[in-house]
Specification:
Length: about 375
Amino acid sequence: MVFPWLNNNKLIDQQLLKIKEDLVEKMKCNVNQPMPPLQTWEQNIIDSIVNVTNTLNTNNVTRTAAYLNFYIRHPDIHWALLGHMVSRNGGWHMTDLKGDLLTRLISEKEQKNYFLFLERGNWLIFQDVFPQFLLYHHSLRMKRNLFYLLPYLNVSTFMETIWNHYWENRNYYLLAIATVINEQNYLEKHVIQNHHFQKTVLNTIGFKLYDFLRFNHIIFPYVENETKPALIGATLQHFASLHERIMLGKRLYSLLFHQENVLQGVLRWAKKNKHTGSRADYWGHLFHHVKESLPGTIYKRRTKKCELKKGEPRIYSPQLKFAWENIKHEDAVSEDWFHDWKVIHYLKEETFSGGDIYEDYCKTIEKIELTIMAKKAIFLRKE
């Protein structure tokens, strides 16, 4: 896939200058000024978007499917596929909390707190970004720019500017990275800085252990000729860092869209394998959505280099519907995160290398297994 703006720094700089000018102008406007009433047809569009978004925002599985379906219909919206793959990872992290490994390391209370943290973030991002996608769909259908309606959907001034720019320039890259910036700032304001989540998740010993064990890989399975999907991806070093999360998003975008064979391989795999939340979705040889080990069995190391040892049961990785019930969320506080145009510096293209995550991912599983065994040995010694 060839993008005319990639490696064209002059074109990118010109577009960024125009975006900066528009953002600065919007910042001068009176944000407290009441919005004018909508015409009936405009209100009908808003109501339809809200209803569709609410229906699809039931749980991680429904959100993840919605992203992929939208990308298939509108392949120019790159973030929809990126969001789909990252949301799959979110679901895997949710069910890990009820799987064979983490249930032996963290308490039930911690499991529930971490799930609520992940679920809230997943829910918030969807209810912010998917209305934007649907409004784009309506704009195409009506062949007119409808992005002046974004404030009625509580979308940031930043993204209103970006969508207007996209309507004129169709720069897929800038739209995708701007969406990364927007969603991570939105997450920062509503989840990371939330006092409740700081107390119950981010500042807990269990979460620091989770971070230390590097069980925070973002992986993209893709198929070429192998029967077992290959993996590419990256690791988030410091989840609480806004800068790190934005840079991870840029790195993942680069991995996904800058190599045609990877893009097609990921898309081929995603279309073929319905998201259930279980890691058996991509590696059925190592994970299974039904528990194969006997109850009360002392955990022994089962894996080496992401292969099961002979005679060992697969690692239990439940489907989301059997791990967690759907959550009824409180409405998000309507408050724009955007206050500084300098965030557009993240829109500058950067070169990323790497993407080979297989070895690190295998070592992480082995490290967790060894931690489980060490914890059990200490417990038995105390007895």
